Amino acid sequence: MRLLLVEDDARIASDVAAVLTAAGYSVETASDGKEAWFLGDTEDYDLVILDLGLPGMDGMTVLKRWRANDRHMPVLVLTARGSWAERVEGIDAGADDYLPKPFQFEELLARVRALIRRSVGHGAATIAIGPVTIDTRAMRVSVNGVPQALTPLEYRLVSYLGHHRDRIVPPTELQEHLYGDDYSRDANALEALVARLRKKLGAFAIGTRRGFGYYMGEHAP
Amino acid sequence: MRLLLVEDDARIASDVAAVLTAAGYSVETASDGKEAWFLGDTEDYDLVILDLGLPGMDGMTVLKRWRANDRHMPVLVLTARGSWAERVEGIDAGADDYLPKPFQFEELLARVRALIRRSVGHGAATIAIGPVTIDTRAMRVSVNGVPQALTPLEYRLVSYLGHHRDRIVPPTELQEHLYGDDYSRDANALEALVARLRKKLGAFAIGTRRGFGYYMGEHAP
DNA sequence: CAGGGCCTGTCAGCGATTTGTCAGCCGCGA
DNA sequence: TCGCGGCTGACAAATCGCTGACAGGCCCTG
């Protein structure tokens, strides 16, 4: 899962980013409004965490512009405690949830999870594909009911493929979501990752369509 | 996704085309205004990248003529840095976005992605020609509803012919599209490819006009 | 601070699939 | 019927993806 964190206070930003990364998300950050707008408009994020007090361009304006351009990713807005005016305006602008500052990391994580789950359309917290079960809340994957010890990167890969089940995902897309903007890696890194995953989940958990990409679930040739 | 790149500097054009191709787009190029106008007026592109300084016919004029003829594909205009007059004029002429030169390839790609995403929904995702259906989004081809296992090259060929349905496409054009500017291959490679494809899609899916080229769909002899 | 273990990227070799090439055949159009 | 362009099946080359081994980096622990 790929997240954009928009926060101008560098210290807060790095703390929050650390927590989110530890929770298994791929986090990119923007520190001012223009950067945030550009990234949100051009990249595909699964969720945006948006602080309203920004230099350059107001957070609310950024959000409105995204929505005007049909960018519908879920947005979690960070507001000052009790500022009802902001919340009302935010609803109109298209925010999906609010978190008053200051907040507990625990609560932030819970809301992030909830928003992502909701946006995927899977109301349930688990995804089942054949013998493989992905518990998005516990970040745990089981095969035939037996929990598997996955590394963070492995988990992100199954999770992404699981959320996009029955669809062929091109390697470029996977790299973008796993590594963010960092394209330095050898293409083989992804292949090695898939191989390790198949060893844990069973060879048939993840399919390959030569020249096109990977997939989980059903898929006609 | 099919792109038209209009750029008179051959070196820049080939560099940019290479980057776009690597990003998975199907790129065609025009090097002067008249050619650009003709292609944009007669072919269906998902996006046009238009340099303004062109020999033959000014880029701005080309754009205006397209719009006057109800050609509404998104157009990304390349302007000289800071030339505000051009930008204002471009807005009136119907440009969708601007990129000041010189630019980073990264930024170009980001904007191309953004424009295409924005315009999605304006065009159908599937092309149906007789019993053959091309789902351009899933990169999947079906015959009578039965999905076929196509190789990447085979897919690119049907996809191209499908986008140019009812028109006879000369072999040279196909080779250019499939192999880029690399003409090292035997002309027979294309014939072999067509043969393999006909075996999968049915002999009548692709027609031959002796001495002219291949086509899908109806064609006026 | 050193040592060890885990995670992940890189490398090299292998096997399968895809694609190009060749040679001969077919059939359209004159 | 003839000749040429296009077709086809077989084979060879190139490419792609997989795998096991290895190494660097990071974190934890003593």
Automatic annotation (TrEMBL), chains A, B:
SMART domains (alphabetical): REC, Trans_reg_C
Domain Response regulatory: 2-116
Superkingdom of origin organism: Bacteria
PROSITE patterns named in the record: OMPR_PHOB (PS51755), RESPONSE_REGULATORY (PS50110)
Residue spans binding DNA: 124-218
Pfam family of the protein (one): Response_reg
This protein's UniProt keywords: DNA-binding, Phosphoprotein
Domain OmpR/PhoB-type: 124-218
Protein name: Response regulator transcription factor
Species whose genome carries this gene: Shinella pollutisoli
Upper classification of the organism: Bacteria, Pseudomonadati, Pseudomonadota, Alphaproteobacteria, Hyphomicrobiales
